[in-house]
Amino acid sequence: MDRSSITQNRASVDRMDLKHILIINRSFWPDIEATGQFLTELCEHLVKKYRVTVIAGRSYYVKKDIFEPAAFYGKEKLKGVEILRARHTVFWKGSLIGRLLNWFTYGILTFFIALRTKPDVVIACTDPPFLGILALIVSRIKSVPFIYNCRDVYPDVVLELGHLKPNLLSAFFDSLNKKAFKRASYVVCLGHSMESRLKAKGVFSERIKVISDWTDVSVIQPVPKEENPFLESVGLKKENFTIMYSGNLGFSHNFHSILHSLALMQERFLFHLIFIGEGVGKTKLMRDAQRFGLKNILFLPYQTKENLRFSLSAGDLHLVPLGKGLAGASVPSKTYGIMAAGRPYLALTDRESEPAYLAEEFGCGLWVSPDNIKAITQTIEWAFGHQDKLKEMGRVARRIAETQFDKSVVIDQWHKILDAFGDFQKNY
After folding, report:
1. How far is CA 344 from the centre of its chain?
2. Phi/psi class of residue 420: alpha, beta or left (left: φ > 0; alpha: ψ in -120 to 50)?
3. Could you tell me which residues come within 8 angstroms of residue 416 by beta carbon, excluding any fewer than 6 positions away?
4. How many CB atoms lie under 10 A from the CB of residue 319?
């Protein structure tokens, strides 16, 4: 579709009254994965203005299923949001075959569940990664607009991670996603680096809307370290320098270089290294830490939302890793919570990544290439010697979080997009 046809489509549409939003994504409440948590918060706000239905799946981490015998989906309610939960397989997602089966069964069930709904607009996220084309088909059958909320760019992510080889399968996968991108009314992506990657795939600028993830600055607030009970509660000293990672421990996070660097430094500097979270990469991370001989390291489970202000504020320097080649294919959402807690971070990413951009644009963090052990070591040594400057970075981070990444600010951007459908409706 060329630019002239887009203009003609938009010029030939009539006013509509948007009432019912259908959102499709596996991860949703009560799931603890970041994607599900953000989507849940978004729906809780949208339902104040629209009727919202979510076709969700089963959680890998929270075992809470309520299904009628022989039913292929269940119905639930959350603060006015209607949840239709597909009864798909939940094999361990660390197994490629298991994950593919989970994706396939969720996708098949979701398609038939969606056919039973009567939406005015369809929004699809990227869990699992083929939801764009599935939602496009549903939107065509229902003759309604389609918004693609691109949270990860596929197949780019799996190609960069080496989970899929460049072949006919990956090319077919890419062609399907490109079709979804190009035929969506809007593609909502998480950052400017992702926007650039989408443009390189041929998505027109006027169809792309950049809406980041967010943080709730009223919930996550800076807590002075001397007043913070978190470190003491886990048996660590408040006076020691604390390096922290908090979030999903997945395939896209390469911790090898940072572990190597810290192992070289542990005899010269006194610090705590804390990993908070779960994920398919956690077992390997623990093995690697043991292999490097790291002595001052602690692994903790996910913290409750109520405890996040204390856990995030306990870090003097946070880690935001993203594997080489993944800039724009994925955007780490953990950055915004760190900023709300008034703490600086070290982005172990390509220079084009969103965390690196924010660190350099606003001075709220540090950046280093993810596989440059020498540069990582030098940067952390600088941080040890300039803790006053780290604190200033944290204060800057908090200001930016309040003005640009607070939940109320970001979700208002979603309302503006959805309200725009009151002014036009595409011909389907």
Report:
1. 19
2. alpha
3. none
4. 23
Is the model's pLDDT at 316 over the cut of 90? Answer: yes
Q: Are 184 and 148 in contact (CB under 8 A)?
A: yes
Residue 103 one-letter amino acid: W
Contact 302, 282 (CB under 8 A): no
3-state secondary structure of 218: coil
User: What is the percent of the chain where pLDDT is above 90?
Assistant: 78
pLDDT for 89 beyond 90: yes
Of 316, 288, 297, nearest to 389 by C-alpha is 316
Is residue 183 within 8 Å of residue 203, measured between CB atoms?
Answer: no
**pLDDT at res. 266:** 92
pLDDT band at 426 (very low <50, low <70, confident <90, very high): very low
Strand partners, 200: none
Residues counted in the chain: 428
CB atoms near residue 179 (< 10 Å): 13
**What is the mean predicted confidence (pLDDT) over 353-377?**
96
Q: Are residues 164 and 273 in the same domain?
A: no
pLDDT at res. 61? 80
pLDDT at 327: 95
Does residue 77 share a domain with residue 106? yes
**What tokens were used for 219?**
């919930």
Query: Across residues 235-242, what is the average pLDDT?
Result: 91
- What's phi and psi for 390, nearest 5 deg? -60, -40
Q: How far is CA 420 from CA 71, 227, 416, 425, 427, in A?
A: 37, 46, 6, 9, 15
**Percent helix, strand and coil across the chain, each to the nearest 5:** 45, 15, 40
Asked whether residue 236 falls in the same domain as residue 369, the answer is: yes
Same domain (yes/no): 113, 164: yes
Cis peptide before 344 (omega within 30 of 0): no
Q: Helix 96-115 to helix 131-142 angle, to the nearest 10 degrees?
A: 10
Q: What is 231-286 written as a DSSP string? A: HHHTT--TTSEEEEEES---TT---HHHHHHHHHHTTTS-EEEEEE---TTHHHHH
Per-residue pLDDT tens for 124-154?
999 999 999 999 999 999 999 999 999 999 9
CATH number at residue 395: 3.40.50.2000
Cα(376)–Cα(241) distance, integer angstroms: 17
* pLDDT tens column, 266-276: 999 999 999 99
- For residue 247, being part of any structural domain is answered with yes
Tokens of 77: 């309610």
Q: Is residue 274 domain-shared with residue 380, that is, in the same domain?
A: yes
What's this model's pTM, rounded to 2 decimal places?
Answer: 0.89
